[in-house]
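Human: We require from you a protein record containing the residue sequence and its fold in token form, and nothing else.

Assistant:
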Amino acid sequence: MKKIRILNLEIDNWSKQELLDNLKSGVVFTPNVDHIVKLQKDSEFVKSYSIGDYKICDSQIVMYASKFLGTPIKEKISGSDLLPAFCKHHRNNEDIKIFLLGAAQGVAKKAQKQINHKIGRKIVVNSYSPPFGFEKDEAECTKIIDLINNSDATVLVIGLGAPKQEKWLYKYKDDLKFIKIFMALGATIDFEAGNVKRAPKWMSEIGLEWLFRLLCEPKRLWKRYLLDDVPFILLILKQRLSMYMNKNSKDTQQTLLADKY
């Protein structure tokens, strides 16, 4: 499968159907503008992203950037579209059993009930919403690992936001002995529970989903969309002009090689 390079990240050029047909095992990450900007300066995030087997475009803005660079991506596959499509695709596959990890207290349980009702079977076998700051609590992380390992789940959907979810997977993935498919899907659990509204389809299709989310959650998201992610435009222009360099990525790759050997 051809990969499309956007700055220091290679994105898999799948259609949603191709992904569903081929996803049998591995780690799924859904890069968007915010991920890509963070990957420019957070070496730990870059290291965490190295375990991704499927890196699929979750942003219409990134789609526009790929066209500008002359290497268009086939389709935007947002996490909020992927999870319901994945569940529907595996409606009758009893080997697919999902654990939901993430969102605020009670939200994952609500999403579990909603998904199972829509699918018509217990495709989500368990769920857990961890307390704030859990990733720094080794005992809490051990509890989560035990919950997942004892759940009979074969698929983990983790929705903790980036870079927390990717870093947690990098650290604990190998402790989850029975999980075959790992999907880091951000706010998708909130969407499935009906806890957060999705942008209207027309806004998503023209690249204004960020504006809808900003209007819905201005206190939480203003800094991300109005400050942190703005450099993406200049970075893409630099790549187009063959002026882009990222020392952080090279250093991380050397570290990964050193760890390997």
